[in-house]
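[Discussion] Sanity-checking designs against the backbone

I'm trying to build intuition for which residues belong where. Below is a structure token string of 225 positions. I'd appreciate it if someone posts a full sequence so I can compare it with mine line by line.
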């Protein structure tokens, strides 16, 4: 069978759609990408987005290898919920504090480059925020378990390893394409009332992140009652 046949490329398309579905919904990750792109430049938002893409690809591989039962252990889900609530609360409070802080931009409307955090810090934040994001966990380990590459294990036409590779490449391409598009779109807003956009995104982002933190805490308390 040709490597370019529709059947052999189906896992690549599945991965592409899964990558887009995981990356595109508005949630804590996209809120932080927008904030950091506006405040620190497109490179900062792009670095955070790359951290998110890394986790999405890793979760796709874990799902493909049918390792999802690890989340059935109550202690694992409890620990993840606590960590997610703490991280989201920290970022939410930081957003609101930034929204209330007086602006210290230069005369041309741009921040001093020396004050920007290193790109590695944005990348690590993207890793943690995505790995602990309840929406991401629910997507990969509840909504799509067994739908990525587990059917391929029984397939006689496409070997499991090439299938897993195609799925992973597809997830990377889909999520990475969204990060490139979204950061480019938000970067355009820097040219149209940047300070106004920053104020609004800080306020809305803070409230959004705290809302997700509250949901994580509610789910934790609801599961323990």
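Best answer:
Here's mine. Compare freely.
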């Amino acid at each position: 069978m040709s490597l370019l046949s529709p059947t052999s490329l189906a896992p690549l398309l599945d991965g592409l759609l899964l990558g887009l579905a995981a990356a595109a919904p508005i949630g804590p990750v996209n809120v932080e990408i927008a904030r950091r792109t506006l405040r620190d430049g497109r490179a900062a938002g792009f670095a955070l987005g790359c951290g998110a893409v890394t986790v999405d690809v890793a979760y796709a591989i874990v799902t493909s290898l049918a390792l999802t039962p690890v989340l059935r252990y109550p202690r694992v889900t409890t620990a993840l919920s606590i960590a997610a609530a703490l991280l989201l609360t920290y970022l939410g409070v930081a957003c609101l504090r930034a929204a209330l802080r007086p602006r210290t931009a230069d005369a041309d409307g741009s921040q001093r480059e020396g004050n920007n955090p290193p790109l590695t810090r944005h990348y690590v934040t993207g890793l943690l925020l995505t790995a602990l994001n309840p929406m991401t966990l629910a997507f990969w380990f509840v909504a799509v378990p067994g739908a990525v590459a587990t059917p391929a294990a029984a397939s006689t036409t496409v070997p499991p390893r090439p299938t897993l590779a195609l799925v992973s490449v597809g997830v990377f391409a889909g999520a990475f394409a969204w990060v490139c598009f979204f950061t480019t779109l938000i970067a355009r807003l820097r040219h149209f009332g940047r300070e106004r956009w920053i104020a609004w995104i800080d306020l809305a982002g803070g409230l959004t992140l705290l809302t997700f933190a509250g949901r994580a805490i509610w789910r934790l308390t609801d599961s323990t009652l």
